[in-house]
Design brief:
The protein is an alpha/beta fold. The chain is 23% helix and 20% strand.
Length: 190
């Protein structure tokens, strides 16, 4: 491994009062665990008791990475919050299924689905920037195109801002990944 080479990138996508969305890219393993725990832990310590991790670009997660996720879940729970994992790839989902950690961690097909699990009074608007998938701007400025950003207010579904229908339990964001095999145990749907 080359010195100084970064295997993991953590980007803050949304920074609301009690909820943050972080995009995690790269590899979550022994070489990145300290960086991951330091950066993510600082976000939680700053008062973000609900933490959504967008794992769309996470290519690899081993047992050390899994321990990091479980540690973050524990920290969020201590603050009466929750760690919410979104857009898991097949490899990461497989690790969670094999270890049965999927029973301890909240997993969702998209960030919009994960944010639906955050209490409404502290839920940040999604998508950030005030536009929805078709580029329209919501008249009330929250970017949901007249909906709540999770689906239609009448419960009819709709886009969650990722361009994915909310009622589609098989929806996965990334086009560059395989989908779980039909019949496999998939607990990522809300």
């Amino acid at each position: 491994m080359a010195q100084g080479r970064r295997h993991l990138t953590i980007t803050t996508v949304v920074d609301a009062e009690e909820c943050a969305v972080l995009r995690v890219a790269g590899e979550l393993d022994v070489h990145a665990e300290r960086q991951f725990l330091d950066e993510s832990g600082a976000v939680i310590a700053a008062g973000h008791r609900f933490l959504v991790l967008d794992l769309t670009a996470l290519r690899f997660c081993d047992s050390r990475g899994l321990n990091c996720l479980l540690a973050l879940e524990w920290l969020c729970r201590r603050m009466n919050g929750r760690l919410l994992l979104a857009s898991l790839g097949v490899r990461v989902l497989h690790v969670l299924l094999v270890t049965r950690a999927v029973d301890a961690l909240a997993c969702f097909p998209t960030v919009g689905h994960a944010l639906a699990a955050v209490p409404e009074e502290i839920r940040p608007s999604w998508p950030p920037g005030g536009t929805v998938a078709d580029g329209t701007v919501n008249s009330d400025g929250d970017g949901s195109g007249g909906r709540d950003g999770i689906g239609g207010r009448d419960g009819s579904g709709g886009s969650d801002g990722d361009g994915v229908k909310s009622r589609d339990p098989d929806a996965y964001r990334s086009d560059d990944r395989e989908r779980p095999r039909q019949g496999s145990r998939d607990r990522s749907a809300p």
